[in-house]
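re: that chain from earlier
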Amino acid sequence: MDSGLWQEIGATITRGQGSDGREAARERFDQLWASCPPGEHALRCVIAHYAADLQDDASVELRWDELALAEHAASDAADWQVIGIADPEGMLASLHLNLGDGYLRAGRTGLAQQHLDAAEDGLAGLDDDGYGAMIRAGVEGLRERLAVAAER
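^ sequence. v structure.
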């Protein structure tokens, strides 16, 4: 794995957190995706995961989220250890949460429910830390929004 690429991903994530840096970060993630070798599944998952969060178009966001989950599925533990993530399964709840949210916003409640269920299945593997609390709160929020959508 190219450590420079990993550092560039981190810098792009930071750049995208400011409203004035979103477009530049989107463009940079497109470039990073294009330059990342197809076999680097963990890196490609991370790139797609963060690129999705920067999109203004919900369908483009959903496409990136789908790519992130596909790259995660193609990865193995060694792919993740190289980039310093010991337990890649902990990321699955977040990936499914993002997909569930995207599908709900697209009006595809059946798929949203499937990904909510998958996200809930992944909660047990999360630690009791800030990240785990954030994902649990996101899952609860998606659950509530899906219930409201079902009542309509």
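The chain has a mean pLDDT of 90.
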